[in-house]
Fold this protein.
Amino acid sequence: MSRDTSTGKVFEQIVLPALDHAGYQYQTQVHIGNKPNGSRQIADLVIYQAEYQILVSKKWQQSGGTAEEKIPFEVIMLARACREFNYQKAYLVLGGTDHDSTLGTKGWTLRKWYLSGGLDSWIRYHELVEIISSDLFISKINRRKI
């Protein structure tokens, strides 16, 4: 049985209208430079402000999977892109559900750890990358605080 990998599209259907409503200019699926191995680095979103650009990468998980294991590398690549390609900041937006056997939900097992700064002692990234929940990201958009 194949996994449903289209759930991230729901996230786009929420974020993009919020960006439009708040008056942000943006592009989706933007080639922002090359990774160290020469492959293309694609940002899910680039938000354009008057004098700077903000990268957005989104990870959605609502079933068991490996999205959360990719988070440290994504943080490294986003921080590198900011430094090397002159982006002001990056958001890594974590959406979906947390694994909770009491509630019967599947999904993230490490999201709360990431959101509470669990990577802080392992990777230096705070000046460039903000790991944020999807709800808080939408709230920042609505308040024009991106």
Observations:
- The longest helix spans residues 7-22.
